[in-house]
Design brief:
By secondary structure, the chain is mainly alpha-helical. It contains 8 helices and 2 strands, in the order H-H-H-E-E-H-H-H-H-H. About 70% of the residues lie in helices and about 5% in strands. A hairpin with a 2-residue loop joins strand 1 and strand 2. Helix 3 runs antiparallel to helix 4. The longest helix has 30 residues. The chain is flat, with a radius of gyration of 23 Å.
Length: about 240
Amino acid sequence: MKSNDSFLASLNPSMKLLSHLLVMFLLMTITNPKVTFGIWVLGVFIGIFLGGWRIRYLLKSLLPYLGFFILVFWMMAAFGEGEETIWKWAWFHITAESMNHGLTIAIRMLGFVTYGLLFTSTTDLTLLIMSFIHQCKLSPKWAYGLLAGFRFIPLFQTEFNQMKIAHKVRGYKQKKSWKAFMRYSLPLFTQGIRKSERIAIAMEVRGFTGARDRTYYQTARVVTKDVAYLLSLLIVVIGISIFIK
């Protein structure tokens, strides 16, 4: 997760996550493809005008999912059930009902990806963990464990790339096999254990006990604009659901 300088990046992560989860829940209850499409377009506009998205970034992020969405739509439409037949050939039977259902499911999944991307592209990981502690009352032991685990991901990616380069220099050509999996996974697993032990010792030396009554360098707070964003988003989504037929 990386934040930027947009309006969404200044919101409280827990409130922002709650807002987007509520929109996703409403999407699951909607069966009209026009309403689903309208809510998805709303997410795109929010990303462009409030999330600092550029068209290039939007296309780069959503295009990898486009083929999957088309496949879902085709599977739902071509093998669905209904009375109003649109096209039929061999075992393919597209009806108005199945096409409507396929469009709804495909656009709904696109909406899930878009609102999820809205959250991950505008949220700082450290601030998210602090928000979990202060707003969601998550135990500091679990919170700092999650933070350390997320920090390990880019380190593992860097080490994995270094291992692949080293094996390539040494002439190792066996790529897709169980031996190749063990050759890469075992060193990464052992290094992960060593690093986790070092982090645990370092935290204990610095007096970390996991108690809630402690001071924090960074504190997440809920302010007026967080509540305003939540209410405004829900009002607009509900309005789209009511007025689009």
